Amino acid sequence: MLKNRGRIFAVDDDELIVAMLARGLKSDGYEVNFQTTPQDIIANIIAWQPDIVFLDIDLAEEMSGLDVLAAIKKEDIDVEVIMLTADDSAESAIRAMKLGAVEYFTKPFNLDEIKIIVGNIIENIRLKAEIAYHRKNLCPYLGEGLIGESPPMVEILKKADKLVQARAETILITGESGSGKEILARYFHCRREEGESNGPFFAVNCTALPENLIEGELFGHMKGAFTDARSDKKGIFELAGSGTLLLDEIGDMRLDLQAKLLRVIEDRTIRRLGGSVDLPVEATVIVTTNKDLKVAAEQGGFRRDLFYRLHTFAIELPPLRERGHDILLLARYFLRYFSSKYLKKSIKCFSAGAEKTIMSYGWPGNVRELRNIIERCVVLEEMETITGEHLRLNLAGWTDSESSACSRIILPEEGLSLEELEKDLIRQALERTDANQTKAARLLGISYDTLRYQMKKFALL
Ligand SMILES: Nc1ncnc2c1ncn2[C@@H]1O[C@H](COP(=O)(O)OP(=O)(O)OP(=O)(O)O)[C@@H](O)[C@H]1O
Ligand SMILES: [Mg+2]
């Protein structure tokens, strides 16, 4: 049995034509349905949901195939339309194409030709669906925006939107590993997509490609440019079209390639290896690194000119530990996400102790570490509530100093009086040391003189 390759609906008052189409296409594995009268065509198409509709232009006196085509477009029905006609004048073909038909055949037609075209259209529909699926996955945060409400993240998102509006051509994103550089680059791409740009998103890790291949990968090559160049090849700059090209770990790029990259960024053209034509670069180029490029430039590991060029539009992502309440927002988001991914309905929650642990830990691996730990807890812990203990057992980098930091005071939402807190801590230290001021000063990590000064200030003497 042939696999169902697609659904085809044919509308023609000529029974011989529809019978021929149905026989030919069914034998190629398509499911075919048809009608020979003009009644309820639109309703039947909506009910049967074909991939392709064949429409006879001279369908009936009261209704032409072009009227049906116009109605299909007006109703925005997700189907491709192929027109059939006995009239071989170019005029009706042009009208049909203008109305949105994908193909046009004059009767008598060649069935083999129709089969090839139908095959191509079905392949095109499949590819479009696949691209739409990947685009959706590429921009998962468009609905709720990138997660981050802390002042530095709000500033970053504002700046990102400004850069999108200004159509910045090259953007540098720096930040520690796992801080979200790639996701911010994707955010840029998706915001541009909301506008007019419609190109792909390409991410290239500058250190993952072998040294001898990276140049050809980036700029493309002509046949014979080097020993293994057996045919012409487009580079990633070309393939990215008007989309976005992310060059990851730029800080580790070879110095000679940095020089070439600078030229590309400044001239907005590339030349394939062995080529003689300058091709325009239309993509937004986003470069990322977790290195301090300024220091690298001072030490000679990074070209100064490239650094200054990239610095024009630079965004520095703060480490997760500097994003305050965002840490919890992200943790709760990942908990919801992984609970629904792995457990479908039963959503887990954090205990108060777990939230305290999350806020006390330093997150050296940043958002990636947070995401991974929460995924692990959701999958491995059997209780409904994730506790601080669960988290600490899963945190590879958890140390006693974090443990003691865990008992630190978390700034309450409504704020607190620092003076009152200081006064209270001094009082506690004095109580615990039986008013021995030298010992109390040591407990508080301040000098004897500072303690005396503070005690005077708070009238504790
Ligand atoms: N603000 C955010 N909201 C939601 N998810 C985030 C956020 N920031 C980072 N993530 C998630 O954290 C993980 C790490 O992010 P990403 O890969 O963008 O980091 P990176 O800075 O590029 O890391 P590296 O330097 O290792 O390449 C990803 O799974 C990403 O989806
Ligand atoms: Mg990255």
Short description:
49% of the residues lie in helices and 13% in strands. It has 20 helices and 16 strands.
Care to describe what's here?
Strands 2-1-3-4-5 form a five-stranded parallel β-sheet, sandwiched between helices. The chain has a five-stranded parallel β-sheet with strand order 7-10-13-6-14. The protein has helices at 15-27, 41-48, 65-74, 90-99, 111-138, 151-165, 181-194, 211-219, 236-239, 255-267, 293-298, 304-311, 326-342, 352-360, 366-380, 388-394, 400-406, 418-432, 437-444, 448-457; strands at 7-11, 31-35, 52-56, 80-85, 103-106, 170-174, 201-205, 220-221, 233-234, 244-248, 269-270, 279-280, 284-289, 314-316, 349-350, 385-386. Helix 13 (326-342) runs parallel beside helix 15. 49% of the residues lie in helices and 13% in strands. The chain is of the alpha/beta class. It contains 20 helices and 16 strands. The longest helix has 28 residues, at 111-138. The chain has four domains: 7-135, 3-Layer(aba) Sandwich (Rossmann fold), CATH 3.40.50; 151-316, P-loop containing nucleotide triphosphate hydrolases (Rossmann fold); 321-406, Helicase, Ruva Protein, domain 3 (Orthogonal Bundle); 418-457, Arc Repressor Mutant, subunit A (Orthogonal Bundle), CATH 1.10.10. It binds adenosine-5'-triphosphate and magnesium ion. Residues 146-148, 175, 177-183, 290, 330, 367-368, 371 line the site of adenosine-5'-triphosphate.
